């Protein structure tokens, strides 16, 4: 089994990488921001680096010795290069250099900040580098700091030698005094055992005196020079910076990396579905169609040259060949939350698509809070079904109007049951009249499409799920969360329905801007009900590029409801 799936998995990896890269490009503003920050940093580095000059000096360190050519002496065992580097960077050296340069005490910190000291591996060399805005000043300060370090180390070594000489001299003086006293006593002693014992003590004292004097002589003979300068600093002829072109290039590369990293982090923590596969996994159903950008607002099925019309036909055919829909031919179209405009557009276009295949289609607007579909479509009145012609209508029952007919141009016609404002929406949706209305789809060749308010806003759709069990979810992946889609599926399944699939769409930027502009001037709040759009009925059909007049929905933004 692993051998069978191995090649398929290997073929999927490039596609997954391409998909991930496409998802990263959704956050172009993050990538662009990273590139901008990188270019600004590169420009700053190039401009500031153009005025900086670095002067360098080198010192070869050595340990104090009386014979520098002695093969037994190894300076690398005496010197700790890490400690020597820290000494060179110390404030004591900076204070000595400031005094040599004639600088004040307050400038020591500034002098110290421009110094860098490194030690090349496997060497006894200290590399001094001083950076300043003036090349001559950089060389002068580098030489001063180098000499200050040599003077400090020499003073430290001489201080150690002076302490040792003082200690040895302190040991020598008592022994020499004792030897002088013993010499005087020996002159007065007669020959014998007492004299022999005194001579033995004197021999020991003389040996001790000789040893101490030898150590003192060796210390005084030491060369206390801590090192030799093998390269003096000279004024540099070129700036130390990488240059503006190179800095901009490096900044751009770093900016691209930062932008991609930011886009990847944003992608990882983005709660919205990142692809059609994410939507399908959330609703546990297929994505039946992906509408072209900005096409979810018009009745376009009547146009054979329309890409959106072909997409709707494809969705209708996929539903027709789905056994779960073909058995009962009832479809409930809902959105997770927000506006109903996209779900209304999908419901109307699917109704036209089913009518185009010869089915007797009835579109039901189950929005009893702010109905507007009859005003947004050009419709004509039709006769009311026989079962609904009773005169004893209770207050608030729905439907109470005649069925309407919508002319979808070349796609044919389909019926429309418009929504009506009622006082008790749940009672109207669960009434016997509504049940008999939905039962019309049981006739041979009939199909019923119901559009209801968003599931997460109102429970109206859930009141219809047990009778219209096939549900189509319409969503914009940019504005809905995966958790919302999962919650919608759980509510639908818990109410006894079946999620047939999902239709995704993306509103154009212009439509979103228009919707935001209309939201402030068209939205009004009705007494006892939610905010609804103030819909203007269309009087002229929308004229398309092919010159034919067709019925169309007035494009309404996502914020109108």
UniProtKB/TrEMBL annotation:
Which superkingdom heads the taxonomic lineage of this protein's source? Bacteria
Stretch list, region Disordered: 505-561
Q: Where is the composition biased (Basic and acidic residues)?
A: 535-547
Which PANTHER family does its entry note? CAPSULAR EXOPOLYSACCHARIDE FAMILY, TYROSINE-PROTEIN KINASE
Q: What is this protein called?
A: Lipopolysaccharide biosynthesis protein
Please name the source species. Streptomyces mangrovisoli
Q: What is the lineage of its organism?
A: Bacteria, Bacillati, Actinomycetota, Actinomycetes, Kitasatosporales
